[in-house]
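Exercise 3.2. Students should predict the tertiary structure of the chain below and write it as structure tokens, then compare their answer with the key that follows.

Predict this chain's 3D structure.
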Amino acid sequence: QVQLVESGGGSVQAGGSLRLSCVASGVTSSSRCMAWFRQAPGKEREGVANIDAPGRTSYVDSVKGRFTISKDNAKNTLDLQMNNLNPEDTATYYCAAGRGGGCTFTRTYFAWWGQGTQVTVSS
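Answer key:
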């Protein structure tokens, strides 16, 4: 049984930082695309960052230079370091595991999802 469990969300002021973590079980991060998505109230869920099996990363334009995705294959964990946060980053953040080793931001490619962790950024 696959399980993805996120942690690390919270409330910060604009300009602050947060680090999200995701622990995966039942799926191996070393062989799959792993990603972070987010969903703000009234908006569609969007891909934020992904990392493929070899470790190549990709980011949505709005977070480039501020967010960093990383994974620890030995621990089967996925992290998202978020710096210089702004109110537009407020959302529920989800960890997701893809069906294969290559990456995309297409939601249907991701077979497993965590329950989400809330990030709130105040101005």
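Discussion points: The mean pLDDT is 97. The CA atoms of residues 89 and 121 lie 7 Å apart.
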